[in-house]
Design brief:
The two termini are about 35 Å apart. The chain contains 8 helices and 7 strands, in the order αββαβαβαβαβαβαα. The longest helix is centred in the C-terminal third of the chain and has 23 residues. The chain has about 300 residues and is an alpha/beta fold. Helix content is about 30%, strand content about 10%. It has one domain: Glycerol-3-phosphate (1)-acyltransferase (3-Layer(aba) Sandwich).
């Protein structure tokens, strides 16, 4: 919207609307094309989303049994980040059903860009409003920008903070990457920690043969939003993002400990460290308790211009 130089009432120059609002202080209205809903650069098809729910919801319920808790922690509206632990390739259907059927929010996943290049499947992913993750390319940071747009448009975005299935021998959450924290601190969207247990029995990581019968039970719980108020207004540097990420992972791990009725390791598994764990331990702010952060830990902080790792 352009602002003219003509004076407004009382001879005063007209005031621009608040950020993100149109004339009269109202949210901007975007043109509709069929069922597509382009908002701030993010769009999807309502018809295809409805079709996916009709087809997938009953099918996924038949594959597994579920025990869910924490519905009260799902925001009914507005952008929100769901941050689950990552056990296997069977995670996505369990999280999708938990989000849609229990939390009443349509799930938006960050998916490898190669999937979007597959005929039929790729265009469908775009129509469903899913987000491609570009890795190893100069435009890798684009995924975070797209996720920001989706969150500002009110989407429920699922971000796996670990970035991959856990390699911890006992399947506890690993040290997280900073994408979820960056999105939360940039957009103000709440982060809802989610812990689940049982999907690894359906399809263990690295296996291509699912174990569907007898039906497995997947237990899932959503916790209260992670308290990131301590980082509000801070520069999004490496130490801030690592500390916020450590808080997110701590809440996820605590929820999983309750589900499993076990005690998690004092030091989370770290893919960037030989052997998986720092011998010197880790402080509460997510930094190494030794003389300095390891090279691998420092490498986890993405360049906001180039990184798409979430």
């Amino acid at each position: 919207m352009s602002t003219r130089n003509s004076a407004g009432p009382g001879g005063q120059p007209p005031q621009p609307p608040p950020p993100g609002h149109g004339p009269g202080g109202q949210p901007p209205q975007t043109a509709r094309r069929g069922h597509d809903q382009p908002t701030s650069g993010y769009s999807y098809s309502r018809g295809w989303r409805l079709f996916s729910v009709i087809i997938l919801r009953p099918g996924l319920r038949l594959l597994m049994k579920y025990r869910w808790a924490g519905k009260e922690n799902f925001p009914r509206t507005g952008g929100v980040i769901l941050a689950p632990n990552h056990l296997s390739y069977a995670d996505w259907p369990t999280i999708a059903l938990f989000c849609d059927s229990y939390g009443k929010r349509y799930p938006v996943f960050m998916i490898k860009s190669a999937v979007f290049e597959v005929k039929i499947l790729g265009p469908l992913m775009f129509k469903l409003g899913q987000l491609p993750v570009y890795r190893g390319r100069g435009d890798a940071g684009l995924v975070l920008k797209q996720a920001e747009q989706a969150l500002r448009a009110g989407a429920c975005v699922i971000v796996y903070p670990e970035g991959t299935a856990t390699r911890d021998p006992d399947l506890w959450p690993m040290v997280g990457k900073t994408g979820a924290a960056r999105l939360a601190l940039t957009t103000g969207a709440p982060v809802i920690p989610i812990a689940h247990w049982g999907a690894q029995e359906v399809l263990p990581y690295g296996s291509t043969k699912p174990h569907l019968f007898p039906r497995k039970t997947v237990r899932m719980v959503a916790g209260p939003a992670v308290d990131l108020s301590a980082y509000a207004g801070q520069r999004l540097g490496a130490s801030t993002l690592r500390a916020a990420t450590a808080d997110i992972m701590a809440d996820i791990t605590a929820l999983l400990a309750k589900i499993r009725q076990q005690t998690p390791p004092a030091v989370p598994y770290d893919l960037a460290v030989p052997g998986g764990r720092l011998s010197s331990g880790r402080t509460e702010d997510g930094a190494s308790s030794g003389a300095g952060a390891s090279q691998g830990e420092a490498a986890q902080e993405p360049d906001p211009k180039t990184s798409g790792q979430a």
